[in-house]
Amino acid sequence: MQKIRIGIVGYGNLGKGAELGIMQNKDMELVAVFTRRNPDSIQLKTNDAKVYSINEITFMTKEIDVMLLCGGSLTDIPVQGPEIAALFNTVDGFDTHKKIPDYYATMDEIAKKSKKVSIIATGWDPGMFSLNRLIANSILPEGDTYTFWGEGISQGHSDALRRVEGVQDGLQYTIPISEAVDEVRSGKRPKLSVKDRHKRICYVVLKDGYSEKKIEQEIINMPNYFAEYDTKVEFISQEELNENHKGLPHGGYVIRSGVTGINNEHNQIIEYKIKLDSNPEFTANILLAYVRAAYRLNKEGQTGAKTLFDIAPGYLSILSPEDLRRSLL
Amino acid sequence: MQKIRIGIVGYGNLGKGAELGIMQNKDMELVAVFTRRNPDSIQLKTNDAKVYSINEITFMTKEIDVMLLCGGSLTDIPVQGPEIAALFNTVDGFDTHKKIPDYYATMDEIAKKSKKVSIIATGWDPGMFSLNRLIANSILPEGDTYTFWGEGISQGHSDALRRVEGVQDGLQYTIPISEAVDEVRSGKRPKLSVKDRHKRICYVVLKDGYSEKKIEQEIINMPNYFAEYDTKVEFISQEELNENHKGLPHGGYVIRSGVTGINNEHNQIIEYKIKLDSNPEFTANILLAYVRAAYRLNKEGQTGAKTLFDIAPGYLSILSPEDLRRSLL
């Protein structure tokens, strides 16, 4: 079997997760990692793979089938995506929901010209959660869909915490409000804003000479980030933060609460739920399933940008259509 | 907007559910129901739809875009599927897992000849559960997948019950063993056979003159159906059975318990769960989403048999690809 030859662009948490994920897939191999750092500073876990400067990416069109873009959505992917799609099939986890239509248009134009496939905005939200929203909404046209995130660390809110003067370090966990989850599961269809569905817990390491009371007030009253939420602040030592909050757990739910029947008398509940010890490793594994899809779609002659909505699920599996019908249908 | 013109073949629980489901979808209309019964004996809930004898189906090729096959998988669909696929796009919920490969081959050959699309084996298992098994297995190659059915009525086991001499009426509920569900959710990966995952509760109405004790023993020792399971028998009156067990609730779970990390140290759990007040209405609504897909695929020039694995999720939604990217991704 000819393996899918993969390049990883960016070697942060997601890129490292992708390297490990490739080892779980017998039909994939990691050829190279591309970085803006000094390539010598990176030690891969894959024996035969190389580390190159990102500037050398243009020389690798013959060696790599699909490039996995593992940079950030804020500044990396909007620049790297279009550049790399001009040369390679790409898969990314671009996750700025509002900018997806524009990014799609850009990538579609470039990938059609380069005769490659670019699968954008995969992962779990956007990604698996989107897929479940779409399918559940299609099955149950009468109903409401609820997305809960967490329990897990929110990067944006953690950053906001750390910008408060007097905060030495900190992390913020987003936690679904369990009463809200239970109410939705029961078939009631409450109106719930984001703040009705989630609470926030902040673990904060204080700099010397600052008052806990004052910092706590500053945090819980911060507009846009915390003021609208049930927010708790706990002060802990740097050692405790390092010890107990190093992992990257996450999770969440998509629940569709629908009705059927001549008088809408039957509640029908669909719930999709994930519970992750490692968010970046899980996300990377989703991206890799779409690497397989990008490779196959392009082999079939398809080009342009795609999202999960455009891709038949069979393309994600290592199994043949016959085996899938026999073993998983 | 040109609506999708639908015919329903068979007007049992599933066909009745489909009629109600069509009313929830603005882009669909019910044109006719086809039955083996006397058409005059059927009163539809849809004003403009007609009831015809199934023998008249061949005259309706110009009036109907997609035929929804709502007969049974044992004897109806294996005969009706091939006959109707020779004339129409079809969607069915053929659910005899073992016979799917053969049925697929038959339908594929016929639908390719007739230049129609036949989507087979949709519903929830096979169907949504299959889709979740496929996607979760693709995302988490290292792991185990667990399917739990219930709590809900099993038709096959209820039939077996009612064949016992002395049983006047009866129903059997399949119930997931909650300790098994919790163990799987915890990230342990126990070996669990079907009987380790499910228990069975039988509600039995006894004929006059029969002994509860004797009938109970006969049921719980029935090989293949009950002997291997934790089975409870409760004797109730016909009135109570009619009163409390008329509904058709069901449900179930697909859980993928996977691992990632350099030493497989991270548990990653994906759970898909449904809780249904009406199994046939929910199943019908799934079939209708695939009616939309069959219609669109055939408009695009596609032909032959398809399963859920072959169909991009976007085809299921009433929304355009642009709207989907904007609102659900």
Keywords, please?
34% helix; alpha/beta; seven-stranded parallel beta sheet; Dihydrodipicolinate Reductase, domain 2; 2 domains; Rossmann fold; 329 residues; 14 strands; homodimer; four-stranded mixed beta sheet
What does this structure look like?
The structure is a homodimer of 329-residue chains. Chain A is of the alpha/beta class and 329 residues long. Chain A folds into 2 domains: 4-125 and 280-327, Rossmann fold; 128-277, Dihydrodipicolinate Reductase, domain 2, CATH 3.30.360. In chain A, 34% of the residues lie in helices and 27% in strands. The first copy, chain A, has 11 helices and 14 strands. The first copy, chain A, has helices at residues 13-23, 76-85, 100-114, 128-139, 155-162, 178-185, 194-197, 212-220, 238-244, 279-299, 321-327, and strands at 4-9, 28-35, 50-53, 66-69, 89-92, 117-119, 143-149, 152-153, 167-176, 198-206, 230-235, 250-260, 266-276, 304-306. In chain A, the strands form 3 sheets. Chain A has a 7-stranded parallel beta sheet with strand order 3-2-1-4-5-6-14, sandwiched between helices. In chain A, α1 (13-23) packs across α10 (279-299). The model of chain A has no long low-confidence stretch (mean pLDDT 96). At the A-B interface, α1, α3, α4, β13 and α10 of A face α1, α3, α4, β13 and α10 of B.
